[in-house]
Design brief:
Layout (H helix, E strand, L loop, with lengths): L1 E5 L3 H10 L7 E4 L10 E3 L7 H10 L4 E4 L2 H5 L2 H6 L4 E3 L3 H8 L1 H10 L7 E4 L2 H7 L7 E5 L8 E4 L2 H13 L10 E5 L4 E11 L1 E15 L3 E12 L6 H20 L4 E12 L2 E8 L6 H5 L7 H9 L12 E9 L23 E4 L2 E5 L7 E5 L3 E9 L2 H12 L7 E2 L7 H5 L2
Parallel strand pairs: 1-2, 1-4, 2-3, 4-5
Antiparallel strand pairs: 6-9, 7-8, 7-9, 10-11, 10-13, 11-12, 12-15, 13-14, 15-19, 15-20, 16-19, 17-18
Helix pairs in contact: 5-6
Bound molecules: glycine.
Length: 427
């Protein structure tokens, strides 16, 4: 099989490596460029990275399966488009992708199917939203309705912050047409858990759990990022939470069936656990990043087989190893704000053989000091996921940080407390 993965980050690199474990996989194309591509992982180097260039590639290459990473393409209906050409595609159709691309749609779905979530109101104009502010007190959560590159959620500590967020969305239009409506939501406090699930029609098959670290600095300080560390399983997950989650999943299945939203792909349930009770914070309809980098190395079942089971509407037989995976992401200093790129990465050849390196934002370039060779340079905010899979969290944590010491690039930065859970959550 020839497989095209749309997207080029650490998530896509981890998916590519997992797909190559199946002998039927001839090669995996990454749609643009991943600096970790080698052997049977091939960079397709699609320019402009849009439906037209993807179409051209599909026309000239006999692709058997397309797997889509980023939410933007899914919300634009790329799955419907590819399937209409008779090519197998793994991901939600446009209508189901709204569970991620419209916060208001997702909240209505949750409310209608009695899925526990924070209380909320929807507003489509500034004046009405202002009158809603006293309902929840502070902090209050304000979410722009559409996909806003991960920047659409504001946790407002006081009225001044909330008015600023509303002004930015409704008057300054900082999210363009993605912010014509908002969800105003009660603030919940606790810890988060990521649960990715296969969806096959209306049936949901959960993965093991994960815990994402979203803040850029140690001790959960600083601005939110796309995720700069992750562990799996989530150390706070309990049998009781698992039972609550299974009930929630049954409700989601009911909703998918009744709303005719069944699809083939991934549903990522973003949970918040407050005082032992699960709430759904959000849905994503794609693999998480960096969750994928710690979940797939623990997958004992075969990813391609699982994807084909979902596509063929068969039960998805997932199996996870009873071990622990952890990743710390090396980032370019300045991320999630401005950062430099183009710095050479060294030391990757020195890491232990059982350490996995997924490339989030890197590039292979010709090394001008040697005619034949290439070198790898930084090409993004998140640069490399350093992953260890061990018998317990302490061993995984030690292996990740021992190996990070061997890697270098200018302006390299990373959190030193991933996996040090007691310290982070004791307050
Ligand atoms: N790690 C969160 C996400 O993928 O959206």
């Amino acid at each position: 099989m020839k497989i095209l993965i749309i997207g080029n980050g650490g998530r896509e690199h981890a998916i590519a490596e997992a797909l190559l474990k199946n002998k039927k996989t001839e090669c995996v194309y990454i749609s643009t460029h991943n600096g970790g591509a080698k052997d049977r992982i091939i960079n397709a180097e699609l320019t402009n990275h849009n439906i037209e260039t993807i179409d051209e590639f599909l026309a000239k290459t006999q692709i058997d399966l397309v797997v889509v990473g980023p939410e933007q393409f899914l919300s634009e209906g790329i799955i419907d488009h590819i399937q209409s050409k008779g090519i197998k595609a793994f991901g939600p159709h446009k209508a189901a992708a709204r569970l991620e691309s419209s916060k208001a749609f997702a909240k209505e779905f949750m409310e209608k199917y009695q899925i526990p979530t924070a209380g909320y109101f929807r507003y489509d104009n500034y004046d009405d939203a202002l009158t809603g502010l006293p309902e929840f007190g502070y902090p209050v959560v304000i979410k722009a309705d559409g996909l806003c590159g991960g920047k659409g959620v504001s946790i407002c500590q006081n009225e001044k912050d909330a008015v600023r967020a509303l002004t930015d969305i409704f008057h300054n239009r900082i999210f363009g047409n993605q912010g014509t409506e908002i969800v105003m939501e009660q603030f919940l406090s606790g810890f988060e858990a990521s649960l990715l699930c296969f969806v096959s029609g209306n049936k949901i098959y959960p993965f093991d759990t994960a815990m994402d670290y979203k803040k850029i600095y140690d001790n959960d300080l600083g601005p939110n990022t796309g995720g700069v560390g992750c562990i799996s399983p989530n150390p706070y997950w309990t049998v009781d939470l698992d039972q609550q989650s299974n009930q929630i999943i049954r409700q989601i299945e009911k909703g998918l069936a009744q709303e005719k939203l069944g699809f083939t792909g991934i549903l990522f349930i973003g949970y918040l656990i407050e005082n032992g009770k699960l709430y759904v914070l959000e849905f994503n309809t794609r693999f998480g990043d960096p969750e994928t980098e710690v979940l797939l190395p623990r997958l004992k079942s075969d990813l391609l087989t699982n994807i084909m089971q979902a596509i063929d509407d068969k039960p998805v037989e997932l199996d996870f190893a009873a071990n622990v995976a952890m990743t710390t992401i090396l980032v370019s200093q300045g991320y999630p704000g401005k950062y430099e790129t183009g710095h050479e990465i060294t030391g990757l050849d020195l890491v232990d053989p059982d350490i996995l390196i997924y490339h989030n934002g890197t590039k292979q370039i010709i090394d001008s000091s040697s005619d034949q060779k290439t070198k790898i340079v930084t090409n993004g905010g998140r640069v490399l996921s350093v992953v260890a899979v061990k018998e317990n969290l302490a061993a995984a944590r030690q292996a990740v940080y021992n190996n990070i010491d061997k890697i270098h690039f200018d302006n390299m930065s990373y959190r030193t407390d991933i996996g040090k859970i007691i310290e982070i959550y004791k307050n």
